Amino acid sequence: MTGAPRLSLRIDFANGARLGPGKAQLLGMIEEHGSIRAAGAAMGMSYRRAWLLADEINRMFREPSIFTRHGGKSGGGAGLTPFGEMLLATCRRMDAESHKALAGDLNWLASVEAADFVAAGRKGDNDG
């Protein structure tokens, strides 16, 4: 691995739901592209996978985060509800604050990392 250690924030809810960087990124891509299909493609995932994640996000909270428009004359698409916009902003803020709070610890971890160690199962291993 090259570069500094990466920190990812994932929230595990009591009901088994999880909110992590992938779902937050999907929300951001839907906001940016205006489509679940385009958001999934931008993330390198199938439309079905993106749609299933979007549906899960909508069911995780008391309010939906994503709205969809059916196709037709003006075309279909998707976007974030006001709750979804607040959820995305909260995810981004928590991510930024956790990085800020732990920057010193991450720098220390980087300084003591064994440069020649490669974890089993990592991409790029010579073992396959």
Please report the number of helical segments: 4
- What integer is the average pLDDT? 91
Tell me how many strands there are.
4
Q: What is the N-to-C order of secondary-structure elements (H for helix, E for strand)?
A: EEHHHEEH
Largest sheet: 2 strands, antiparallel
Q: What's this, in brief?
A:
This protein has 128 residues and is mostly helical. It has helices spanning 21-33, 36-42, 47-60, 82-112; strands at residues 11-12, 18-19, 66-69, 77-80.
Please describe what this structure looks like.
The chain has 4 helices and 4 strands. By secondary structure, it is mainly alpha-helical. A two-stranded antiparallel sheet has the order 1-2. The chain has a two-stranded antiparallel ribbon with strand order 3-4. Helix 1 crosses helix 2, helix 1 (21-33) packs across helix 4 (82-112) and helix 2 packs across helix 3 (47-60). The two termini are 17 Å apart.
